Amino acid sequence: QKEVEQNSGPLSVPEGAIASLNCTYSDRGSQSFFWYRQYSGKSPELIMFIYSNGDKEDGRFTAQLNKASQYVSLLIRDSQPSDSATYLCAGSGNQFYFGTGTSLTVIP
Amino acid sequence: DAGVIQSPRHEVTEMGQEVTLRCKPISGHDYLFWYRQTMMRGLELLIYFNNNVPIDDSGMPEDRFSAKMPNASFSTLKIQPSEPRDSAVYFCASSRLAFGDTQYFGPGTRLTVL
C-alpha cells in the first residue's frame, strides 16, 4: 500500500461546479498535508497546506483534514477551465510522500 | 527571487552515456530534494540534502545514480551509465525547513534515453 492514495480520475466537472478531490494516507505519524497543482508539462506548484483537523479556506479552495479517518480532501468552488490540471496530494511526517495525482478537467 | 533553477530543461542521450542534471535552490533554503516523475510511478523522492549533506538516499534506484551538493547554491544528479528506463522528468525542489514546510519545485529536466 502506498503511503498516500488518490483516485487517478479523470474527474470531469462543468464550469461553475464544485470539484472534490480526495486523498487517504496510511502513516498516522504524518503531520502536514499539501495540495499541489500540476499543469501538463509543468512542475508542481503549491495550492494549500493543512496541519490541523477541520477545514482551511483560501479563496475558491478549501482543504479538509480528518486525522481519525486519515483523509484529506480539496474542494474547488466555482470551478474554472483554468483549474484543469493534475492535483497531487502529499503528506509529511518523517518523509514526504506524494500521491500519484488526480486529473481534473473543467468543461466550459 | 528567481526560484529553483534547473538545467538542462531537456536532455536526449543514448544508452550508456553519462548524464548530469543541475540544480540551483532558492537562496536561504536549507533543504534540497531530487525527484523523478513518470506516468507509471508518479513523483518519487530520490534523495534529499540538509545544509549540503545527503540525509536520505534510499530512493536512489541503483548505484548508477549519484548526487552531490558541493555548496549551498548548487547540486548535481548524475546517471552513469544511463538506460532507457531512466527516461523521466527529474525535478529539484527546495525548502527552508524539513518535510513540514512547503517545497518549491524547479521547472524540471525531461530526460530521454534512447
Structure description:
The complex is a heterodimer of chains A (108) and B (114). Chain A has 108 residues and is mostly beta strands. Helices cover 0% and strands 56% of the residues of chain A. Chain A has no helices and eleven strands. In chain A, the strands form two sheets. In chain A, strands 2, 4, 5, 9, 10 and 11 form a six-stranded mixed sheet that branches. Chain A has a five-stranded antiparallel sheet with strand order 1-3-8-7-6, with no helix packed on it. The mean pLDDT of chain A is 91. By secondary structure, chain B is mainly beta. Chain B has strands at residues 5-7, 10-13, 19-24, 31-38, 42-50, 53-56, 65-71, 74-79, 88-95, 104-105, 109-113. In chain B, the strands form two sheets. In chain B, strands 2, 4, 5, 6, 9, 10 and 11 form a seven-stranded mixed sheet that branches. In chain B, β9 (88-95) and β10 form a beta hairpin. The termini of chain B are far apart. The mean pLDDT of chain B is 94.
At a glance:
The complex is a heterodimer of chains A (108) and B (114). Chain A is mainly β and 108 residues long.
Please write out the topology.
The complex is a heterodimer of chains A (108) and B (114).
Chain A: E1 4-6, E2 11-14, E3 19-25, E4 32-38, E5 45-50, E6 54-58, E7 61-66, E8 71-76, E9 85-92, E10 96-98, E11 102-107
Chain B: E1 5-7, E2 10-13, E3 19-24, E4 31-38, E5 42-50, E6 53-56, E7 65-71, E8 74-79, E9 88-95, E10 104-105, E11 109-113
Parallel strand pairs in B: 2-11
Antiparallel strand pairs in B: 1-3, 3-8, 4-5, 4-9, 5-6, 7-8, 9-10, 9-11
